Amino acid sequence: MSKILYGVTGVGFGHSSRADAISNMIGDDHVILFAASNKAHDYLASIGKDVVPINGFEYAIKGNEISYIKTFWKNVLNLPLFLHSFFSLVMLVRRFDPDMVITDFEPLTAIVAKLTKRPLVSVDHQNVICRTAIEYPPEHEKGFFLANLVARYMVNAADLYLVTSFFFPKLVKDNIKLIPPIVREMVRENKAFMGDHVIVYYHSGNEGLYEILKTFKDMSFIVYGENIEMEDENISFRKTSKTNFIKDLASAKAVINNGGYTLISESLYFRKPILSIPVSGQFEQVLNAYYLEKMGFGMFLESVEQPKLAEFFGNIDHYMRHLEAIEWDGNEEFLKEFASAIHSLERGREKERYPKTLSAPTLVFRKGINWLFSSRPLQHFTNR
To answer: What is the pTM assigned to this prediction?
Structure first.
């Protein structure tokens, strides 16, 4: 039974949802310790996972647009916290002694893995941007440049990249495997059927959307994400509930969302047409929306427009015909590729580890680091 340190970025809930699904698939055969930031830490802790907090990258979003300048300065100001987390992770690896590190777009665990000579496996969707020959709208060239740069260096030099995706462009790197979306077991337990409502999960820039939805008098909409419980004409607002949301998603007629990968994946699992309106400046969401439309699974909009929504609702049968062709099972594909990765890494080159016997100066240095960067993760795992 191998020990795995699993880093999870805290941007959104998609990364932690995927980490939860993967840990449930492989947890019986491996000891998994999570290191997660922000929302990912809170989510994983709430469902009983063994997780230590770290500080991670954050976006600054106003309305329906990412502010790159504010994002830059927000993360620059957090550099002391990043350094604290980095040194904590170095000492944590020394104590936990993982056989492998997995990272879901979390850079600190990736850096520490390479520094301490541990096999590193990247599992995410973002690396489809920099490690495959994607297509994208030409007007988003700037967005591609920035997203490519971030994706390329957020997790660099992994031994293996397992990239989950519902579209499958040509690979441009050797150490990458494309696998279909990984879906949580609580989603897979539900059976899909077509009801009368449309799910709306649209976090940013809702101004005007609800008023437009009210013009479709013969349709009903269920809104999640506002965390309120109320009725407003043909719109039902629901408080956050994983169980109710999945049931409503399974029985939906269609889905409206920003373009987040996890909701798209789960919607496609249930064969639901998707109207995607990406957050401005979020190239990954633009890319997802572009391929949704290209593959006939739904529509890509840059902004909310009543005639376009009417066109989307009028084409649901057309989208359903394309969705019926989906036959993939990302969970099975992941298990197959992960087992192969474990086998290869176990039989591969022996990784150099920190020596068990340390020189006196090194011991003094380590004690100094422990004193300067003491934190709950170190105290918690002192005796592990």
So the answer is: 0.84
